[in-house]
Design brief:
The complex is a heterodimer of chains A (about 550) and B (about 130). Chain A has about 550 residues and is an alpha+beta fold. Chain A contains 17 helices and 18 strands. In chain A, a hairpin with a 2-residue loop joins strand 12 and strand 13. Chain A starts with 11 loop residues before the first helix and ends in a 5-residue tail after the last helix. In chain B, helix 2 runs parallel beside helix 3. Helices cover about 45% and strands about 20% of the residues of chain B. Chain B has a single domain, classed as Response regulator (Rossmann fold, 3-Layer(aba) Sandwich), CATH 3.40.50.2300. The chains are: A alpha+beta (about 550), B alpha/beta (about 130). At the A-B interface, helix 1, helix 2 and helix 6 of A face helix 1 of B.
Chain lengths: ~550, ~130
């Protein structure tokens, strides 16, 4: 019986209300057991209650038809039993498996409304089963119990509507979809050519209808395929509370993390690359943002610092806000440090909020082991931009800081502006296109051999597309347009010959024989069958490219 | 005719599930009593000899299902009230132990509304048979 057609489906909220605290308590206790064992202060007495909580989660999950959660809870229970039987001996790393599984279980319960499947759960389950089997060798009773359970589990599985699919298959599916989209665009383009030449010909309107219908179906197919790749962001958020507790303890602080919007779904490929930067920001907030309890008390704040992590989805993108109620950015110190590092000069007006994302920037007097293993906010910013996202910070001294991230839902299909430079077509991701401007000769100037243009009342550098992409120098007649790309507060104009239009392009890997990889992030195939490079505005803006 | 049922379970979710099952079809309109631990459940059983059937969870803090059955047997409290022991997993041994402790039948999680309906129908039929 699967979760969707389960008789108690309507009680899913009640299920989460009851099981999430149990799963969290179990996961936290398992972390405690590990810590206490390492410190030689016992901890095993916690395993009994943990087993009880897991048992309840297992039973409730079974009732709700949430087989993946049931299986995880069951495997955890088995591992607890094996560890208890072992006493102090943990040669097989059972405890590490338990801690990992505890985190997974929390994520699964949190995502129960979506069926409770979480990335990594299947792999963990296999390892846990192997470890528990190994540990239970010579224990006939436990093995019997497992066998009878497994029989029952298999019966439940047979009736389930939920199938597990290797994510690589979804990648293949996406690839095939991409080819379909390209072929569909090719058919549409061929039709337009024929229709232009033939005028009104019998059969053409029917063909037009058929092509429109195909377009609609492909759009739907695209939606369905993209949806199967989506996972709730809670699969990333879920592990933060436990990780942060350790960090906070390590630096003598007290923090509480509140998350919201965990149900917001994102492409798994994006989520996989989002966890590290977010964890880094959170760790930073605990180490640098939140004050010690004594400092907080002196400032009239509660001992416990508050961290808030919220996700909201907005038309194809997800806004993530990470706020703390700590001391806020020390702007004086940031500016001093920037001068020291030569990122800005003493008298120069600089935005301290933008400086902290500059490569090599850090105000910490020594690299804190916890704050990110020597990695600064510049690396976080680079990771976010590599996802086609943006990052900004808001801060008030004494009141706290908030980091605002804006990330695309998916990396696989990118809405792009198609432009032409020297007869070659290129895709520019719309997310980083600030404007397209007609290149009036009187608005373009040359200063120190660099092209600049007056745009929205300021000067921006303008680079020739041909020089940038290595197809040739500025043509004699001059380019007709420039595209203003923008990311992380930086802007630059790129001169192009033609603006072709907007299109959803399917991102393909980069063929090394094509283009200059330092300004190109991938390729795509356009409706006319031509291969087009997808420009990487983020990298173009980060580099000093020829004017 | 309305009957009375008692549910003893430490899980609020399970009480909701029973409510859901007993809100529909033939099971609607009965009197339902709920207890969240064995001690409370035993007290309710003592007050309600008219109970048609009791659903008793095995795993509970403060007096588990087997302890409730054992005390009921020892005190010979309303032996006519059938008690179904509800468990998440069990071996044949456990089931034998439950029956010898005085459980009328056994219900294994995960169960479906139909399983509960069948047990109720059988309990009511047996009660009618023994009364006749």
């Amino acid at each position: 019986m699967s979760a969707e057609d389960n008789a108690f489906r309507e009680l899913i909220d009640e299920y989460v209300v009851e099981c999430l605290p149990l799963a969290e308590r179990a996961a936290d206790a398992l972390v405690d057991v590990e810590r206490r064992r390492r410190a030689g202060t016992g901890g095993d007495e916690l395993l009994g209650p943990v087993k009880g909580w897991l048992h309840t989660v297992k039973g409730n999950s079974a009732m709700m038809g949430l087989t993946p959660i049931q299986e995880s809870a069951h495997a955890l229970e088995d591992l607890c039993a094996a560890l208890i039987e072992r006493g102090g001996d943990d040669g097989d790393g059972l405890l590490a498996l338990l801690v990992e599984g505890g985190g997974l279980l929390v994520d699964q319960v949190r995502g129960a409304a979506a069926g409770g499947t979480v990335e990594g759960a299947t792999g963990w389950l296999a390892r846990a089963a192997a470890a528990a089997r190994g540990a239970a060798n010579g224990n006939g009773k436990a093995a019997d119990r497992r066998r009878s359970e497994r029989r029952r589990g298999a019966e439940a599985d047979g009736a389930a509507n939920v199938v597990r699919v290797d994510f690589r298959r979804l990648d293949t599916l996406l690839e095939v979809l991409g080819e379909g989209l390209i072929e569909q665009a090719a058919v549409a383009e061929a039709y337009r050519r024929v229709a232009r030449r033939a005028g009104s010909t019998p059969g053409l309107p029917e063909l037009d209808h058929a092509i429109l219908a195909l377009e609609k179906t492909m759009k739907r197919l695209e939606g369905v395929v993209m949806e199967t790749r989506l996972l709730p962001i809670s699969s990333v958020f879920g592990r933060f509370p436990r990780l942060l507790r350790g960090v906070a303890e390590g630096v003598g602080k007290r923090v509480r993390l509140e998350t919201s919007g965990g149900e917001t779904a994102m492409d798994k490929a994006v989520l996989d690359r989002l966890g590290e930067p977010l964890l880094h920001l959170l760790t930073n907030a605990v180490v640098h943002g939140i004050e010690t309890p004594a400092e907080r008390r002196a400032a009239g704040k509660p001992d416990e610092g508050a961290l808030r992590l919220a996700a909201v989805s907005r038309s194809g993108r997800v806004a993530i806000e990470l706020a703390d109620d700590g001391r806020g950015l020390n702007e004086r110190r940031i500016l001093d440090r920037a001068v020291e590092l030569g990122l800005t000069s003493a008298g120069e007006e600089s935005d301290p909020h933008a400086l902290i994302f500059q490569p090599g920037f850090s105000t910490a007097d020594r690299v804190s082991e916890l704050a990110g293993r020597g990695v600064g906010l510049d690396v976080v910013a680079a990771a976010v931009r590599a996802l086609g996202g943006t990052i900004a910070v808001r801060s008030r001294p004494g009141e706290g800081s908030a980091f605002l991230l804006d990330i695309p839902l998916t990396l696989a299909i990118v809405r792009s502006l198609i432009v032409e430079v020297d007869q070659e077509r290129y895709a520019v991701p719309i997310a980083q296109v600030a404007a397209t401007v007609r290149a009036e000769p009187q608005a373009l100037h040359e200063i120190n051999h660099r092209g600049v243009a007056v745009w929205r009342g300021g000067l921006i550098q303008v680079t020739d597309g041909g020089a940038l992409l290595g197809t040739g120098a500025r043509s004699d007649r001059g380019r007709r347009f420039y595209v203003v790309i923008s990311s992380g507060g930086r802007r630059r104009g790129i001169l192009v010959d033609r603006l072709i239009g907007h299109q959803d392009v399917v991102v393909k890997g980069l063929d090394p024989s094509l283009g200059r990889p330092d300004v190109v992030s991938g390729t795509t195939i356009l409706g006319d069958g031509r291969v087009a490079c997808i420009l990487d505005p983020v990298r173009i803006l980060e580099q000093r490219v020829p004017a | 005719m309305a009957h009375a049922f008692l549910f003893v379970d430490d899980s609020a979710l399970h009480h909701q599930m029973y409510r859901l099952i007993f809100s529909r079809g033939a099971l609607a309109g009965n009197t339902l009593y709920h207890a969240t631990n064995g001690r409370e459940g035993y007290a309710l059983l003592a007050q309600h000899p008219e109970l048609a059937l009791v659903f008793l969870d095995l795993n509970m803090p403060e007096m588990n299902g087997l302890e409730v059955l054992a005390r009921r047997a020892a005190e010979r409290l309303h032996p006519q009230v059938p008690i179904v022991l509800v468990t998440t997993e069990s071996t044949e041994d456990d089931e034998v132990r439950a029956r010898s402790a005085g459980a009328w039948d056994y219900l294994r999680k995960p169960f479906q509304p139909a399983d509960v309906e069948r047990l109720v129908a059988r309990a009511l039929a047996e009660a009618a048979g023994s009364a006749a």
